[in-house]
Design a protein that fits this description.
Radius of gyration of chain B: 21 Å
Helix content of chain B: over 70%
Order of helices and strands of chain B: HHHHHHHHHHHHHHHH
Strand content of chain B: under 5%
Number of helices of chain B: 16
Number of strands of chain A: 0
Largest sheet of chain A: none
Number of strands of chain B: 0
Oligomer: heterodimer
Number of helices of chain A: 2
Structural class of chain A: mainly alpha
Strand content of chain A: under 5%
């Protein structure tokens, strides 16, 4: 009857590692989306992005 | 001998997972290109026929989601879907699209809409989260699952479910179930809410606020907003982004509640760092894009900036198409079948409350807002 998360009674989510891993992935995707979006924006607004590469 | 062999296996496995994920991205891009083609070719082909009006009315989100679902069926039948699923990055595509959308929203519009958007988000999240939590308790739904359901339906769908799952340490199956439920309810909303907007004769700002406050996934909000029109899309995005920003607050509150009350692990006391970790960072990108574009337009003038913003919008549409295709590809029926009717009932009832309270708040707070 130990508290969840202790070695004697590992939390199923923690032991599987799925939810924390997915959360980290979502956080990384947040930063990745911010960097990619802003980089594209700056390249286009500064005229450095070639017109033929616009979808 | 065992060492080098296991080392080789250890390096080969992630490499092959990356190769499959890249394959998944390629599938999304190919279907996205097909969507772009249909979006332009179908209205041209239907010109002068009885189908012309319908062909003109069908926007890219419709093609993207339908082709995504069709691709889902084909990949499931051929047994490739699970392997390729690492490339179906809905969250990344939609968030990049929304950062780019920031460029076409004048920063003053965000400032003007921020007050009502924050008020609407606070009231709506409190009412819908409270109702879902209460009803889930009455129907005997597991505490962790009802935390996931309440976060997903009241804040921003899959992102909120992921954040809540981390906060309450939910099981992987509970997260998969909630995510499937979110998509199951979001898909019809994309088409039903714009139709309801027409029937109710709502103004673009009220329609955008209603859509932004009600549809759970950010991607589906963009799809429905795009169907109603550009103004509705802008307001819907501001309202949804405000809700996304409040995700950090709710995630920290859930962490505190589960750590201190449900599971009583005093060591897991949440702090400022937890709030920052759970704050959706793309919201900052969205605001930064709006500020950058507003400054550039101010410096070079709106005529000179128009073609540049139009290029940014082309990228925004492309990323949104990739996100909608991914939504279709990611949809799963199995977790829904396994969990039974009670969580679905809770989610459906909460959606009803969200629709009614959201419409009232949108009319009350956004009737006077113009772009």
């Amino acid at each position: 009857m130990s508290a969840p998360g202790t070695p004697a009674d590992p939390d199923p989510a923690r032991s599987a590692g799925d939810v924390p891993a997915q959360r980290r992935l979502a956080l990384n995707e947040d930063w990745a989306a911010t960097v990619v979006g802003l980089l594209l924006l700056v390249l286009i607004l500064s005229g450095l992005w070639p017109g033929w590469l616009v979808p | 001998m065992a060492g080098p062999v296991s080392d080789r296996q250890a390096t080969t496995a992630p490499r092959s997972a990356t190769a499959w994920a890249l394959g998944g991205v390629a599938v999304v891009v190919v279907i996205g290109a097909l969507v772009r083609f249909l979006e332009q070719a179908v209205p041209e082909a239907a010109e002068g026929t009885a189908w012309a009006e319908i062909a003109e009315a069908v926007e890219y989100p419709v093609y993207a989601i339908l082709l995504g679902l069709l691709g889902n069926v084909v990949l499931t039948v051929t047994g490739l879907r699970e392997r390729l699923s690492g490339g179906f990055r809905t969250e990344f595509f939609i968030k990049t699209g929304l950062v780019l959308l920031g460029a076409s929203i004048d920063f003053s519009v965000i400032v003007r809409a921020a007050g009502p958007a924050v008020l609407q988000a606070l009231v709506l999240i409190t009412a819908v989260f409270g109702f879902t939590w209460w009803l889930g308790g009455r129907l005997g739904v597991d505490d962790k699952l009802r935390a996931l359901l309440a976060s997903a339906v009241s804040i921003c769908g899959v992102s909120a479910a992921i954040a809540a799952a981390g906060a309450v340490q939910a099981k992987k199956e509970q997260l998969a179930y909630t995510a499937s439920l979110v998509i199951l309810f979001a898909l019809p909303s994309i088409f039903l809410l714009p139709a309801a907007v027409d029937v109710l004769g709502l103004s673009p700002a009220v329609a955008g606020a209603w859509i932004g406050g009600n549809i759970d996934t950010t991607a589906a909000v963009s799809a429905a907003g795009a169907i109603v029109g550009e103004e509705a899309l802008q307001i819907a995005t501001i309202v949804k982004t405000t809700q996304n920003a409040l995700l950090g607050v709710v995630a920290v509150a859930l962490t505190a509640y589960f750590a201190l009350k449900v599971e009583r692990t005093a060591s897991a006391r949440p702090g400022i760092r937890d709030f920052w970790e759970r704050f959706p960072k793309f919201v900052l990108g969205f605001l930064a894009a709006s500020i950058i574009a507003t400054v550039v337009i101010g410096v070079i003038g709106s005529d000179a900036a128009k073609p540049l913003i139009s290029d940014v919008n082309a990228f925004r549409t492309t990323f949104l198409i990739l996100a909608f295709v991914s939504i279709g590809l990611e949809f799963r029926v199995a977790p829904l079948r396994e969990a039974g009717w009670r969580p679905i009932g809770v989610f459906a009832a909460a959606t009803g409350v969200n629709l009614a309270v959201g419409l009232g708040l949108a009319v009350l707070l956004f009737s006077g807002v113009t772009l």
